[in-house]
């Protein structure tokens, strides 16, 4: 199997709701630090241009940008200048007048994909964002096949599976994870779910969270990069801004076997899953 070593970074930064210029500067600094460290794939948080805790739709709309706006444009320029692949979340002002919780993948050639979050979380659904209706993209890049989705999307195994079945070597996920109480000594459940998504699909996953507090909301700061066996390759820096860097062999994600006789894709029996779903909905 061909060796395909790639260096990936999760840029865990502190953001300020509505202060797009300050957020852009923090992201720029973090991207440059990652590039200086030899990183090839950079993953930024969810809604990285705007912050998260919006008072109302008017505040959100004032901060949102089109995909060809200054934030994504700067990421594309940095990607071209430093030969990077950057995946980042942003509040997208759609041409249809709606606002989307989106993520882009850019490389030296420009914007390769823009994905709109399909599964909205809590107040995102309260007259703020419109859910996306497209499937998560899987992009052929210079380092391998990279999938993109956003935060709560990760909690739907069917959605993650779509990316894996399209041959993604690495799934990049901008996230904003609120800090919730957990039993002492337990790994945050959000991180556990990322590990499960990686292991059940034998696919690398990089989730980039944010740090700090915003309008009374503390953020977990649980950025993590996980290997195809589901084990973390980075140390959790809960709540603290910083770079989380891992060296990964993406070719490992192309081997779906987990024993001499088992393969996580070939062993699937979708005809049974569809039958069970139809029965659950009373249509079988």
Automatic annotation (TrEMBL):
Q: Which UniProt keywords apply?
A: Hydrolase
> In the UniProt record, does the keyword Hydrolase occur?
yes
Signal peptide coordinates? none
* Cited Pfam families: CN_hydrolase
> CDD domains of this UniProt entry?
nitrilase_2
On the tree of life, the source organism's domain of life is Bacteria
Annotated CN hydrolase domain residues: 6-250
Q: Does the keyword Hydrolase apply?
A: yes
User: Could you tell me which InterPro entries the record lists for this protein?
Assistant: Aliph_Amidase/BUP, C-N_Hydrolase, C-N_Hydrolase_sf, UPF0012_CS
UniProt lists the family membership as follows:
Belongs to the carbon-nitrogen hydrolase superfamily. NIT1/NIT2 family.
**Entries under PANTHER family matching the protein:** BETA-UREIDOPROPIONASE, NITRILASE C965.09-RELATED
The protein's name: Nitrilase family protein
Q: What organism is this sequence from?
A: Rhodoglobus aureus
């Amino acid at each position: 199997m061909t060796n395909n070593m790639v260096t990936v970074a999760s840029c865990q930064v502190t953001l300020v709701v509505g202060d797009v210029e300050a957020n852009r500067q923090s992201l720029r600094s973090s991207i440059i630090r990652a590039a200086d460290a030899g990183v090839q794939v950079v993953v930024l948080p969810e809604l990285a241009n705007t912050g998260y805790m919006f008072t109302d739709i008017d505040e959100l709309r004032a901060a949102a940008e089109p995909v060809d706006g200054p934030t994504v444009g700067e990421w594309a320029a940095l990607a071209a200048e430093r030969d990077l692949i950057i995946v980042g979340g942003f509040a997208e002002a759609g041409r249809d007048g709606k606002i989307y919780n989106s993520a882009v993948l850019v490389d030296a050639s420009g914007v390769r994909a823009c994905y709109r979050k399909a599964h909205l979380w809590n107040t995102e659904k309260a007259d703020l964002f419109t859910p996306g209706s497209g499937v998560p993209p899987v992009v052929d890049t210079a380092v391998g096949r990279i999938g993109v989705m956003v935060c709560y999307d990760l909690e739907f195994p069917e959605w993650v599976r779509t990316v894996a079945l399209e041959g993604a070597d690495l799934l990049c996920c901008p996230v904003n994870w609120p800090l919730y109480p957990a039993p002492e000594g337990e790994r945050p459940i959000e991180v556990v779910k990322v590990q499960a998504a990686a292991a059940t699909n034998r696919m690398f996953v990089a989730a980039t969270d944010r740090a700090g507090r915003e309008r009374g909301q503390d953020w977990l700061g649980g950025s993590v990069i996980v290997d195809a066996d589901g084990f973390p390759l980075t140390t959790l820096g809960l709540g603290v801004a910083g770079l989380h860097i891992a060296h990964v062999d993406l070719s490992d994600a192309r081997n779906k076997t987990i024993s001499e006789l088992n393969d996580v894709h070939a062993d699937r029996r979708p005809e049974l899953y569809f039958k069970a779903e139809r029965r659950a909905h009373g249509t079988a």
